[in-house]
Design a protein that fits this description.
Elements lengths: L5 E7 L4 E4 L6 E6 L9 E5 L12 E3 L4 E4 L8 E6 L5 E10 L3 H24 L4 H19 L28 E3 L22 E5 L2 E2 L26 E3 L6 E3 H11 L15 E2 L16 H64 L26 E3 L7 H21 L10 H4 L3 E6 L10 E6 L6 E6 L3 E6 L4 E7 L7 E4 L5 E5 L5 E5 L4 E6 L6 E6 L5 E6 L3 E6 L4 E7 L7 E6 L5 E6 L4 E5 L4 E6 L6 E6 L5 E6 L3 E6 L4 E7 L6 E6 L5 E6 L2 E5 L4 E6 L6 E6 L6 E5 L4 E5 L1
Parallel strand pairs: 1-8, 15-24
Antiparallel strand pairs: 2-6, 3-4, 3-7, 5-6, 7-8, 9-10, 10-11, 12-13, 12-14, 16-43, 17-18, 18-19, 19-20, 21-22, 22-23, 23-24, 25-26, 26-27, 27-28, 29-30, 30-31, 31-32, 33-34, 34-35, 35-36, 37-38, 38-39, 39-40, 41-42, 42-43
Protein name: Pre-mRNA-processing factor 19
EC number: 2.3.2.27
Organism: Xenoophorus captivus
Length: about 725
C-alpha cells in the first residue's frame, strides 16, 4: 500500500480515537512510533483469537465496526493496520497526539518565578546568603527540576540478573510506563511452545493503571493511594486484595469500621482480608517549614552541637577506658610479681623437704602438749583412729564436775540480762555492713556451715561446697587460713573456744581436726561409716559429739583422737541428721530423718526423752543458754520450742510456705533466737516476736551466728557470700 493510502489522525492529549474496521477485517495491529522495523507489532484486536486481544488499549463499539481508544496519550502514537484472514492489508492509519508537554512548561515557569527571582533578590540585598545559596541550591530546586522532567525518558543502569526489582519514580498520578527492548533476543533455543520474547514496545502502565498481563513483566504501584485521608508515607502499609491498592493500616481499618468497603472501588472489604507489606522503617520527609533558610541554619547548628556533644562524650569514655586499662595493667603486674614470689617460695620449700626426708628417721619423737590435740603420725600424715576405748570413771567424773561448775555459774547470773547486751530496739535497726564473696571457690559455689570463735568473735569459720575450711578475720577483712583435705563438701564446722584449733565434718565420713596456726590437719577421726551430719563440742573443750547417716552418734576424745563410745537406737532404725550438746554437757539432743528429736543421757548412753511433732526431717536443733529451752527446725516450714523441764512443746513458730530452716542459734545470753534458711529472722525469747528480717542473700542461708553480746550478726549461704549485720 502506498504512502497516499495512509490516513493521518491528529488528536489532542486525552481525546478519543476511533478506527473503523471493515467487514472482512480480521486483525488490528499497532506499531508504536519510533519502533524498530524488525519489531513485531502489537495485536490490538483479533476476530478469530480473542485471547490475543488483551492489551486493554481500546474496545470494539458500534456493532464491531469501530475500534475506540479513550483518552489517548503519546504512548498511542504510531501506525494502526487492519488485515484480513490472509494477511492482506485492508487499511492503514497513523495517529499523532499533541499537548502532553504543557505541564513541563508550567513547572518551568513555577520554577523560575518561585526560586530564581527570589534567590537573586536575596543575594543582591544580603551577601550573607551567597554561601547558603551555592551550597544548598540543589536541595531547594530539586523538586522543581524533577517536575520539569515529566514526559522525558530516563537512562537506567542495566542489571544482569535472573530477576530484578527496579523501583521507578512516577512523577504524576496518571503516569504512563512503556518498556522497549534494546535488542532482539535469540529465539533459536526456544521450543515450539515457549513464549516468544517481545520485539516491540510494551505498555506496562496507562494513566496509572497496570496494563501488562504477561507474567514475565510484573508491575506493582507502591504508593499511598488513599488521598482523602492520607497524604504521607505509610508507617504500616498493607494491601487490599479487592483493589490492589496500598493503604495505611490504621486509616484503612478506621474506614472499614465505618463503611465496610474498599475506598477505591466501593466493594466489600474486611480487616481480615488486608495483607501486611514487610518494608523497612520509612523515613518521613521533612516538613515544608524545615526548608526555609532559618530552619536550615537551625538544623545545621543543632547538628553541630550534637557532633560536639558526641565528641565530648567519646573523649570522656576514652579517658575512663585509659584509666581502667592502666589500673588493670597495674593489677596484672602485681599479680605476676606475687606469682613469681610464690613460685620461688614453693621451689625453696621443695628443696628443704628433699633435704629433710633422708634425716626423718633420725629425728627424736617429741611429746605432745596436753593442751593441743595429738600431732600427726610418722611421715607427716595425720593419725586416723577409730578404736572405741569406752567411758572410764575418770571421764564420767570430769563431765560431772564440769556440769556442776556450769550450773553454779548459771545460778549466779540468775535471770539478769548482761548490761552490754544489745537491746531489742537497737537490734531492729541492724543493717548489712559488709559482704565477702571470695572465701570459697566459684566453680563449686556455696557455704554450707558457719561458726564464730567464742573467745574472739572477730574470727569466723566457714565450710564450703568446694571441700575447704576457711578461717576469716572480720576486722582485717582477710582470710587467715584455708584448710584443705576433705574429699567431699564440708557440712559442719566448730571453732575451739580456747585453742587455735577448728573441727570439720563431711559426707566423706571423716572428722578432721585442724591447726589454724600451722594450717594443716593434725588428726582424722573415722567414727562413722556414712556421712557425718552433725558436730558439737563439749563444754570441757576436750570431747566431740558427732552424728551420722549410719544411725550412730559417737563421743570422741580430741586429745587422743580416740572414739570413746558409739551408740544407736536399734528400735528406731533411722538416720541421724543433727546433734547438739546441752550447755551443762550431761545430756544432748539429736534429730532424725523421721522427724523425731531424741534426748540422750551421756553418762548412761541411753535415750531419756523423745519429742515428736515435726512432719519432716529435722534439720537443726539449738539449746538455750539457760538450759530450759530447746529450739528445733525441720522441713515442715516451722520452728518448735520445747520446755525441757515439762518435756513438752510450748510454742510453734509457723513460717512461710516452702520455707526451709537450715540453721538455729541462740545468742550467749539466751535472749535472742536466730533462724537461717530462706531468709534470716531474729526473734526475742519469751515473747517470741520477730525483731529482724534480712533478705540480702540471693541463695539459701545455711549458717547464722551472733557476735559477743549480739553486737553483730553474721550469716553464710549458697550464694557463696559471708555477710555481717550491725548498726
Amino acid at each position: 500500500m502506498s504512502a497516499e493510502c495512509i490516513k493521518p489522525y491528529r488528536k489532542n492529549y486525552g481525546e478519543t480515537f476511533e478506527h473503523s474496521i471493515p467487514e472482512n477485517g480480521s486483525v488490528l495491529e499497532f506499531s508504536p512510533r519510533g519502533a524498530r522495523p524488525e519489531a513485531m507489532p502489537v495485536v490490538l484486536w483479533n476476530r478469530t483469537n480473542h485471547g490475543t486481544s488483551n492489551t486493554g488499549r481500546g474496545r470494539l463499539l458500534r456493532g464491531g465496526k469501530a475500534w475506540v481508544a479513550e483518552r489517548v496519550t503519546q504512548a498511542d502514537q504510531g501506525n494502526y493496520t487492519v488485515k484480513d484472514d490472509d494477511g492482506n492489508v485492508l487499511s492503514r492509519s497513523t495517529l499523532s497526539v499533541r499537548g502532553e508537554q504543557r505541564q513541563s512548561k508550567i513547572c518551568f515557569f513555577v520554577f523560575f518565578f518561585t526560586t530564581w527571582i527570589p534567590s537573586m533578590l536575596i543575594i543582591m540585598f544580603c551577601p550573607l546568603f551567597i554561601y547558603i545559596f551555592l551550597t544548598y541550591s540543589y536541595v531547594l530546586y530539586f523538586p522543581f527540576i524533577l517536575l520539569a522532567l515529566v514526559g522525558y525518558s530516563f537512562n537506567i543502569t542495566r542489571f544482569t540478573k535472573e530477576s530484578l526489582n527496579l523501583p521507578l519514580f512516577l512523577p504524576v498520578h496518571h503516569a504512563h510506563l512503556i518498556f522497549t527492548p534494546s535488542r532482539i533476543s535469540d529465539e533459536s533455543s526456544l521450543g515450539p511452545f515457549d513464549p516468544k520474547p517481545p520485539r516491540g514496545p510494551i505498555q506496562l502502565l496507562r494513566e496509572g493503571q497496570i496494563m501488562d498481563h504477561d507474567l514475565g513483566y510484573r508491575v506493582v504501584i507502591c504508593k499511598c493511594t488513599f488521598p482523602p485521608v492520607c497524604n504521607e508515607v505509610p508507617e504500616h502499609p498493607c494491601i487490599s486484595p479487592v483493589s490492589n491498592h496500598v493503604f495505611e493500616r490504621r486509616l484503612i481499618e478506621k474506614y472499614i469500621a465505618e463503611n465496610g468497603t474498599d475506598p477505591m472501588n466501593g466493594q466489600p472489604l474486611s480487616e481480615e482480608q488486608l495483607v501486611d507489606i514487610k518494608v523497612t522503617h520509612p523515613i518521613r520527609p521533612k516538613a515544608p517549614s524545615a526548608t526555609s533558610i532559618p530552619a536550615i541554619l537551625k538544623s545545621l547548628q543543632d547538628e553541630w552541637d550534637a557532633v560536639m556533644l558526641h565528641s565530648f562524650t567519646l573523649r570522656q569514655q576514652l579517658q575512663t577506658t585509659r584509666q581502667e586499662l592502666s589500673h588493670a595493667l597495674y593489677q596484672h603486674d602485681a599479680a605476676c610479681r606475687v606469682i613469681a614470689r610464690l613460685n620461688k617460695e614453693v621451689t625453696a620449700a621443695r628443696e628443704a623437704l628433699a633435704t629433710l626426708k633422708p634425716q626423718a628417721g633420725l629425728v627424736a619423737p617429741q611429746a605432745v602438749p596436753a593442751s593441743q590435740p595429738a600431732a600427726a603420725g610418722a611421715g607427716g600424715e595425720p593419725m586416723e583412729i577409730s578404736e572405741q576405748v569406752g567411758m572410764t570413771p575418770e571421764i564420767i567424773q570430769k563431765l560431772q564436775d564440769k556440769a556442776t561448775i556450769l550450773t553454779t555459774e548459771r545460778k549466779k547470773r540468775g535471770k539478769t540480762v548482761p548490761e552490754e547486751l544489745v537491746r531489742a530496739e537497737d537490734l531492729s535497726k541492724y543493717r548489712q555492713v559488709a559482704s565477702h564473696a571470695g572465701l570459697h571457690s566459684a566453680s563449686v559455689p556455696g557455704i554450707l556451715s558457719l561458726d564464730v570463735c567464742p573467745s574472739d568473735t572477730n574470727k569466723v569459720l566457714t565450710g564450703g561446697a568446694d571441700k575447704n575450711v576457711v578461717v576469716f578475720d572480720k576486722n582485717e577483712e582477710q582470710i587467715v587460713a584455708t584448710l584443705k583435705g576433705h574429699a567431699k563438701k564440708v557440712t559442719s564446722v566448730i571453732y575451739h573456744p580456747s585453742q587455735s584449733v577448728v573441727f570439720s565434718a563431711s559426707p566423706d565420713a571423716t572428722i578432721r581436726v585442724w591447726s589454724v596456726t600451722g594450717g594443716n590437719c593434725v588428726q582424722v577421726v573415722r567414727a562413722h561409716e556414712a556421712s557425718v551430719t552433725g558436730l558439737s563440742l563439749h563444754a570441757t573443750g576436750d570431747y566431740l559429739l558427732s552424728s551420722s547417716e549410719d544411725q550412730y552418734w559417737a563421743f570422741s576424745d580430741i586429745q587422743t583422737g580416740r572414739v570413746l563410745t558409739k551408740v544407736t537406737d536399734e528400735s528406731a532404725g533411722c538416720a541421724l541428721t543433727c546433734a547438739q550438746f546441752h550447755p551443762d554437757g550431761l545430756i544432748f539432743g539429736t534429730g532424725t530423718a523421721d522427724s523425731q528429736i531424741k534426748i540422750w543421757d551421756l553418762k548412761e548412753r541411753t535415750n531419756v526423752a523423745n519429742f515428736p511433732g515435726h512432719s519432716g526431717p529435722v534439720t537443726s536443733i539449738a539449746f538455750s543458754e539457760n538450759g530450759y529451752y530447746l529450739a528445733t527446725g525441720a522441713q515442715d516450714s516451722s520452728v518448735k520450742l520445747w520446755d525441757l523441764r515439762k518435756l513438752k512443746n510450748f510454742k510453734t513458730i509457723t513460717l512461710d510456705n516452702n520455707y526451709e530452716v537450715k540453721s538455729l542459734v541462740f545468742d550467749q545470753s539466751g535472749t535472742y533466737l536466730a533462724v537461717g534458711g530462706s531468709d534470716i529472722r531474729v526473734y526475742i525469747c519469751k515473747q517470741w516476736s520477730e525483731v529482724l528480717n534480712f533478705t540480702d542473700h540471693t541463695g539459701l542461708v545455711t549458717g547464722v551466728a551472733f557476735g559477743e553480746n549480739a553486737k553483730f550478726l553474721t550469716s553464710a549461704g549458697m550464694d557463696r557470700s559471708l555477710r555481717f549485720y550491725s548498726l
